[in-house]
Specification:
Chain B: One of its GO terms (molecular function) is ABC-type transporter activity. The complex is a heterodimer of chains A (345) and B (285). Helices cover 37% and strands 26% of the residues of chain A. With 345 residues, chain A is of the alpha/beta class. Chain A is elongated and about 80 Å long. The relative contact order of chain A is 0.12. The N terminus and C terminus of chain A are likely disordered. With 285 residues, chain B is mainly alpha-helical. The chains are: A alpha/beta (345), B mainly alpha (285). Bound molecules: adenosine-5'-triphosphate and magnesium ion (MG).
Amino acid sequence: MENTVIREGMATVKPTRQAAIHASGLRKSFKDSAVLDGVDLDVDTGTMLALLGPNGAGKTTTVRILSTLLPFDGGEATISGYDVACEPDEVRRVMGITGQYATVDEVLTGRENLVMIGRLYHLGKAAARARADTLLHQFDLVDAADRAVRTYSGGMRRRLDLAASLIADPPVIFLDEPTTGLDPRSRQAMWDVIRGLVASGTTILLTTQYLEEADQLADRVAVIDHGRIIADGTAAELKQRVGTERLELSFEHTADLAAARTALGVEDLHVDEEALRLSTAVGGPDEVRDVLNALGQVPVRATDLQLSRPTLDDVFFDLTGQARPDGDGTRTTARAVATEGADAA
Amino acid sequence: MNATLIHHDTHDTRPENARAGSRPGTGARWLASDALVLITRGLRHTLRSPDSMITSVALPIMLMLMFVYVFGGAIEGGIEHVAPVAYVDYVVPGVILLTAGFGAAITAINVTNDMSTGVIDRFRSLPIGNWIVVLGHVVASLARNLFATALVVGVALLIGFRPTASVLEWAAAIGAITLFVLMMTWVSVLFGLIAKTPDGASGFTFFVLFLPYVSSAFVPPETMPSVLHGFAEHQPVTPIIETVRGLLTGTPIGNSAWLAIAWCVGILVLVMPISGRLFRRRTTS
Ligand SMILES: Nc1ncnc2c1ncn2[C@@H]1O[C@H](COP(=O)(O)OP(=O)(O)OP(=O)(O)O)[C@@H](O)[C@H]1O
Ligand SMILES: [Mg+2]
């Protein structure tokens, strides 16, 4: 049902069998520097895509183009089937955007902001007020509702900004780094709101620099760097590219290491002679048990055991080819192990 | 634990037809409704910034008191040969124009504020005509300036201003003042669109303050050195002041009325499309 948009006063029914958010070959240059170099995106109705990328990758530019705020040089984009370039008004009716920087009126109060926007969506006076009340309540802004936004904290502003983009309950929402600058509690709360939106059938494109956020929230993740999508898939798929879970064991003596190596006898074994460590891929708890059982057959003593799971950080650093902030990683951080695995593969 | 921050609805206030992407309607009725909402916003901005109200009302009143009581005695004698009236009657129309221009300058700051903060992006993401945002500021400026002007006239009457105008002449004077305010407001909008920061936009205030000094507002141009005299005679503020002065105090108007209208309309015709184009350019990149 949500795929079909019926416009009042027109007999046209626009079936949108394609994705709720669709972009292909988006190009954008500022002066001479190409900022987007052929971005392809598809977000199915009712799902969430996280657009992950470092500073300056082109996340904000992409979101601003898709939400009609910025003209673009090439490619095409549709929102709920409406062409971003040719039908901006229709696009604006079906989407809401929470930009990277707050777009609320500092002079007005939180409530006045929401009512004003509701009225500009033509909700009618009473309906706009009721909707503002609900959102203020939902975003825990009731106490501050009648204070000028100028006096709000950064987190309150972000919440109000998100509330503002939800007023007309749009089926498509863009969130540009919605949790940047929020404390852990507010971030959790924001995540809850975002999950609630997806649960109610909203299509969301969210940008983030927080790899964990993409992992936690999104159905799919697209990694953007230098204006290109360099990877696209579920968080699990992306992690697969880097490697699976690995079990890592440390030993006190070279002899122990050698004995363990023989005992395990598997192919995918990483041995670090100097650090007296070895690691092997494990597909789940059963395989962990198998490895430990095999070790139990020989008289070796492991001094440390660690199960490391590749994180999106690994994906990120792997794909963008950036240097890791934690250096060469001689000590066993979970990430370092995963990267070794990827290098070997 | 998160429940303390985010509350879930007990009753659903989500707009019924939002998901369908349609709105109750478009057209003139909604255009008027949008305009009203944004004019209300503009007025709230005015009411919530006491310093701008003080600048646009208190400053002109202080200037008026200063000219009447401090310089008045000295000036009255000096201008008697060209303007044989009580100085208070001579100066009040000028102060009225000064007030009008002063308040309009605040529009520049408001517009720059909107353009340089994210607010404009919020409006642009809505299915409304964006220029209505500017309209909101323009109408608020008109309201603010006419209110300030009324206050200034009130104080003027208290300190001895004795207008001789009939009801019709008052109406014509108010019309002339409104036209002037409209012109100044649109010039102010243009400055606001050109300026990159609110501080830059406030520079416009100085320009506005300067114009009435070198006009017939405080002293007749005939008493000025020849270069200034020439400028004062041929700048837009002078014919407007002469028109308002003539309507309120019965001095000869001559062709000032036509000149005043020509200046105001001419500047509006020039400035409005430029502002429109600049606004479009600044909202699409
Ligand atoms: N108006 C502009 N004029 C010139 N260059 C711009 C403009 N806007 C963005 N850029 C450039 O485009 C590139 C991408 O910017 P964008 O804001 O999309 O990055 P981002 O991925 O959102 O980064 P961040 O994580 O820092 O928000 C940057 O190099 C930026 O300098
Ligand atoms: Mg950004």
